[in-house]
Structure formats: structure tokens, C-alpha cells
Amino acid sequence: MSGDSQILLALSFIALLVVSPSSPVQGQEIGTEPVAIVGQPSQPESVPPESSSGESPLYKAISELLDAGFQKGPVEASTLDAIYNRQRNELGGESSLLDYAYSIVLRKNFQAAEGTSKLQEAASATEPVLLAREELIRQLIEKNKYSSAITELEQLSKIIRSIPKENPQFAQAAKSAYWIGIAIDFLQNSLGNDSISAEAKQAEARLNENLKDRYSLYFRSGRGDAALTRRSLLAAIEKTKSAIVETQTEELEKAKEESEQIAQQQVELEEKLNEFRDVATDDVADLDAKIAALQEQYSASLEAEDSIQTNLVLVQNVITELRIKIDILSTEIAELVNANSGQRITFLVRRIITTKRIQRTALEEQLWAAERDLLVISNSYATLMQSRSELTAVGRRMIQRRQELAGKYQRQSAGARAELEKLERLQAQIERSEENAKEDVNSNRRVKSASRRVREFSSYYDGSLAAERSRLIQSLKQ
Prior knowledge:
Blueprint: H1 3-18, E1 29-30, E2 37-38, H2 57-69, H3 77-91, H4 96-108, H5 112-124, H6 130-142, H7 146-161, H8 170-189, H9 194-210, H10 216-275, H11 281-339, H12 347-404, H13 413-437, H14 445-454, H15 465-477
Antiparallel strand pairs: 1-2
Helix pairs in contact: 1-10, 2-3, 2-4, 2-15, 3-4, 4-5, 4-15, 5-6, 5-11, 6-7, 6-8, 7-8, 7-9, 8-9, 8-10, 10-12, 10-13, 10-14, 11-12, 11-13
């Protein structure tokens, strides 16, 4: 990026922080789908006058609700409901901002279905909350519903476009424009999905049109910051690769040096075989037994490695399958709850939901057990590798001992040469083991983890409940 572009991004970010104070913008109707956003923008929610302390009643109500919901342990749903209803009555009726705060604390306290329902209400109210819309779009992205997310980004941009600069809601609208820039750049450039990338690229032109003039700078700043984040993540991958390659190179050089040393030792042993012909037969036999035992241990180590790797793959497959089943149950539960939203849930439906939650809990327990098994297997693999390293060291010491015994084996030169051949085969085994231990850098666990972060939206935008709470409080302070 050029110096001018970097300066532009910095100035745009500063502008985003100092735009005129506002509370969140609100605007469209939510459909029957769990996170689909449709409709047209309406007027922003009015905030009650400030109290004598300088804080508005709405700010106090939301702060109290959020503080009550963010405790070290779970908070009873009845406690949160009582606070919510009391604050709503004190505010004089419905408040989409209060609904949004309620959705946050519900989700924080393991009331996901109820929290999502309130989130939908906040986003689809007569005066909807922009932050709630952003969260719904983030959830679409996290669920890999990228096309739906792109559609909702365009809807959000239309709401923002209708807000003039002199409107007190402009500050939050500008931040949402910045957020749209982050999201569309992620969808276009970070997923590695050609189809979604093309779709996002087409949508970008429409977003540019919707956000031109007063919101263009914020939108472009979001895109620029997302690009910078992606470049940083990619640079971290290359740095990790370089470190791995460097380590592998050092190990290969060390192996080459050790191989040359063994070769030199073999030459010396050949010379001594010609000098010492009076080596006792029992000493030769003893060495034979030790080498045979070493080879058996080494072969057993290789077989054990194959078994561990097989178990590792099996456990990883089990973990993947359990996660898929958990996601399916979570989706089914959400669909049942949303399908009965706004009406009395029948006993049969409630029972089905309860059964599915119990099934999901059982699967989660299986998942935790499988993950513990994975850790045990990984530790076993590390122990095996350490044992093999020690075995290799023993082999090298035996070669040295072979040199010391060379004089004793002179009269049994033929047998001693046979033993020398065994040592050569042992050396070949060691070299093959070291060769097999080399790993393609792209298959390395650290590289895979770093590459995965590039494709995760959480690397570009903090979607945690704590961050969501902070953004809401900040919007009320503007």
C-alpha cells in the first residue's frame, strides 16, 4: 500500500471516531427466516432526555440490564426478565435498544434461542437497531450463508444511505458503513471461494453507489483495514513457514553430518577387521543379539507410529462428525423455536425441543471426551518420537562400541562383516525414518491454523458478546 493510501486510511479512521454523537440507527422489517432482513428504513429511535446526572434514562436502563447479565456465573432467566420488564415500563413502553440489550444478556446466559428471538425483534422493530442488524449478518457469515449475508449488507447500506449528515444518528451510520466495508472485503478476498468472491465483487459496486458521498470514506476505510488485517495474517503464515523450513533445514544438515560420521566409522571398522582377527566368537554373538534386539525395537516403534496415526485420524473424524451433528441439532432447535415465535408453544413441540437439547448435550459430552482422547493420543505420539530418538542414540553408541570390539572379531571376519552389513541396514533405517519425519510445510499444524484464521471473520471483527456489549454502550455515549 502506498504512503498516501495509508494516510487516507488513518484519517478516515480518526473521522470515524469523531463523527457527531448519536445512538444506533434503526430501520427494516425482519422476515420469518431466523436471520433474514427485509423491508425499508424508518425514522431512528428517539432517546429519552438526559437525567440530572447527565446520563439518559435509556442509558441507565440498558447499563443496568447489561451489568446484571454479565456476571461470573449464569444468571437466572427470571432475574433478567424481571429487570427487562421493569426497565421497559420505566421507559414508557417498547424500546428496540432495550430489546437488543436483552438479547445480548440472554445469549450470554445460555438462552440462545430466546436471545436470537429478541435480537430479531430489535432488528425488525418499527425503529430497528443497526447494531442488531450487523450481528444478524455476522451470524449469517459464521454459518457460511454468504449469499444471504451479501444481500443483507446491501439492505443495510440502503438504510444508511437515507441518513443525512446532520442527523444525530450519523455517527452510528458511519460506523456501520465502516463495518460493511470490512464484511464485503472479507467475503470478496479472504474466503478463497471463487463463486462468493465474484458475487461479493458485484455487490461491492452497488454498495459503493449506496454509500457514495458522505459514507464513502468510512466504507473504503473498512475495506482498507480488512485488507491490512489480511496482509498481516498472510505475512504471519509466511513467517511461520520460513521458521519451519529453517528448522527442517537444520535437522537435515544435522542428519547429513551424522550420516557422514557413521560412514567414516564404517570405514574405520573395515580397517580394524583386517587388523584384528582374534575376536572371540561369543563377543560377536553378543553384538548380534544386541543389534537384532535394536532392530526389533525399531520395527516395533514404526508399527506403533502407524497405529497411533490411525487412531489419530479416527478420533479426528469422530470429532468432525460430532461437531456436524451438534450444529445440525442447534439449527433444528433454532428453527423449531423461531417457527413457534409469537405463539404459544405446544407441549409436543416443547418436548421435541427439550429432547433435541438433551441430545445436543450428550453429543457435546462425547465431543469433550473425544477431544481428551485426541490429547492423549497426541501425547503418546510425542512420547513415541522421544523413545525413537533415544533408540537412535543407542544405535549410534553401538556403532562406536562396534569399533571398539573390532579387534576381537578379527578371526571371525566373515561374521563381523555380516554384522557390519546389519549396521549399514540400521543406518539406512535411521535415514529413512528421518526422511519420513520431514513434513510438507503446508501440512504443518501451525501453518494450517494460521491459514484458517485468514478465512475466519473473527480475525477481522470481534463478534464476542463482550465486544457486542461494549459497542452498544459506546453507541449510547455518543
